Amino acid sequence: MQIEVLKSKIHRVSVTQADLDYIGSVTIDENLMEAANLIENEKVDIFNYNNGERFTTYVIKGDRGSGVICLNGPASLKVKVGHQVIIVSYAMMDFEEAKKYKPTVIFPDTKTNTLR
Q: What is the CATH number for 66?
């Protein structure tokens, strides 16, 4: 049996930009992507800590060290600059493997979106 489990989580980062006039996605600082074990084009769910919005998009690599968290396209309407969001991705795996699997969870500084 295969189940879907948490693979990666960036817990509470601040939205730095919201750009409606873009095709779509979330731009994430490359340092945060690497620390959270996320790759470009990976599907992610985003949970807005300020208003409860939840939505799905995909990752675009942002400039390393920039602290950028930019919601693009229609997703930009679900956030405001300064809102805190949680970004998560999942993986499918065998049930027994999932029992032993440890997801990557990071807790960046919420003011600068840098690693602590």
A: 2.40.40.20
Pairing, β 17-19 against β 25-29 = unpaired
Count of domains observed in the chain: 1
With residue 96 as reference, give the H or E element that holds it. Answer: helix 95-100
Residue 58 annotated among the catalytic residues of the structure: yes
Residue ranges making up the domain that contains 45: 2-95
| Selected catalytic residue, list 8, 14, 25, 89 | 25
- Of the residues 58, 66, 90, 101, only one is catalytic, namely 58
89 a catalytic residue: no
**Token pair listed for 40:** 């470009």
> Whole-prediction pTM value?
0.96
Condensed to tens digits (0 to 9), the pLDDT of residues 16-62 reads: 999 999 987 999 999 999 999 999 999 999 999 999 999 999 999 99
